[in-house]
What does this fold into?
Amino acid sequence: MADPTARSATDPGLAHPQPQPRPQPRLDLLPELTAQFAATAAEHDRTGTFPVANIRALHAAGLLSLTVPSRYGGAGAGLATVTEVLGAVARGEPATALVLAMNLLFHAHVGDPPGWPAGTYERVVASCLDEGALINALRVEPDLGTPARGGVPATTARWTGDGWEITGRKTYSTGAPVLRWMLVWAATDPATDPRPPSSGAARVGSFLVPADTPGITIVRTWDHLGMRATESHDVVFDRVRVGPDAAVGLPAGEVPLPFVPAAAAWNALAIASIYLGVAEAARDWLVGYLHERTPTNLGAPLSSLPRFQSAVGEIEVALANARGLVRAFAQRSDAADPDVAAQVNGVKTAVTAAAVKTVTDAVALIGNPGLTRANPLERHLRDVLCSRVHTPQDDVVYATAGRTALGLPAAGPR
It folds into this structure.
């Protein structure tokens, strides 16, 4: 059984802070927050610990509840605002931006959740507004991998007569030690399911589990090349008991849960904006380095050389175009443009490819200093490479686009 007092190696007190007055969003503080987060980013990358102080700062600035619907006391912000916020946070410290994104995406699309028992979402949103509590969906498993490619989770939910018992293991659980709520993807046990499909198969859906529930253990497996401070450890659920109202995203019998196209657009553009923020931070450091570096044989800063000016100009144009693409599609999503859903995955792929290329170009431009751990460019390179593993992954995006262009039917999960 996990010890609730030891959930976070960085700051156990994050789990249950004292309620404070609900802050209003302060977008004007973003430049200050970017600089503040950047000051400790290298240390958290080195130690692999999540920057808890950053979450407190975001809560104080009213940014953790940015997408909570206004009827619940939040700002109800759209995707255009969210991508700007995530980009600014990521320029300072991208692990913070990724955990923030998961929290914001949840609240953006669960404002009136179908199938949620009365009062359940209200408890989650109140903890976010009052205490800065975080939530994330735990879906990936050691054997199955990402559910985006299909399959049924090995994690099970067994009906006990007065609630559910969750057993299983989740991996790559972003921000695991600092979550208050875990949205666990699991399959029901057909033998005990009170509302089984007529086929006798398991129902697959989400269960809301408070992170301090007995039976939860965080196994510190996260030792990654990049995004090290996300603490995306494994989480083990050993007969974790929750109430009947925990089944918050479970289909009723044969009726599947509705697909929300907007949620896919939000996910793709949020991820794109985060890694674009990493590339922008790399560009910022490169510009400063070229102004400061003055070789003795040159007698002038490297920024005075046309070769470096041209190379920086190429990076600048690529990043400006990528940021413009994110902004344009975020605005189209906010305007409910029906064509966005079919195009936005390609935007994520294009933007993250541009982010990776600009950072690798920056490293190639300056040589050894770019791979020296004393300089942040090395960290930015490791972080930006992680953009490729997020759903939707490039091979799926390209295959889907190719089948569409060839007039072929969509492929099934793989």
About this structure: The chain has ten helices and eight strands. Strands lie at 135-138, 156-159, 164-173, 181-188, 204-210, 216-219, 233-242, 247-249.
